Amino acid sequence: MLQKATKEEIRGLAEILKSESPTPDSIIKSLQRNSQSIFGCILGPQPSYKDIVRQVANKLKIDYKNYHSTREIEIKIAQKVLETVWEKMTPEQREEMEEELRKTAQKFDKTGSLVTSASIFVALTAAKLSGFGVYLLASTALGTITSAFGFTLPFAVYTTISSAIAVIIGPAGWIGAGLFTIWKLTSPSYKRLVPAILYICALRSKQLAGT
Known about the structure:
The protein has helices spanning 7-17, 24-39, 49-59, 70-87, 91-108, 120-124, 132-144, 155-160, 162-165, 179-183, 190-209. The chain is mainly alpha-helical.
């Protein structure tokens, strides 16, 4: 997936992970380094990306036993983040988020499957989600947690997923600060790994859609 990504997309992920350089090799090393600072020797010296995703899912208390592919677990992580945000929103915030998500879906969802849903949130957190829905889910989840770890997403991230990220800067940004407290994600590395996984999920769905 990294080999297929554009330089701008790679740069965004490198900045999230504080990678030494915006290259696939450096990003992989950064993912492993961040995972080791959390998990110690549990995963061994060179954990696979799937190992890292599974460990983050475990930390977020996600049951993924029926989901075997890395992509499926990425999606479950994104849905968990969005669901947690939704639970803490006021009715007014939920309404605003629904409105903004629907505007984005109307503009970019070529299949129309999201637009015809009674609730975009329900559609994004449904068991079976594909195409633009995964992209919008991961992008939205990424935006919701930025305030939780106290920094603005790198400019390269905004330019990569700007069509969806604009949804989040308002309502979701009001909620993010408590998310890491909820999950007791005290290690600084979680504040890199969780958004990195969400970003990778968005890029993967973008590539699969051929856009």
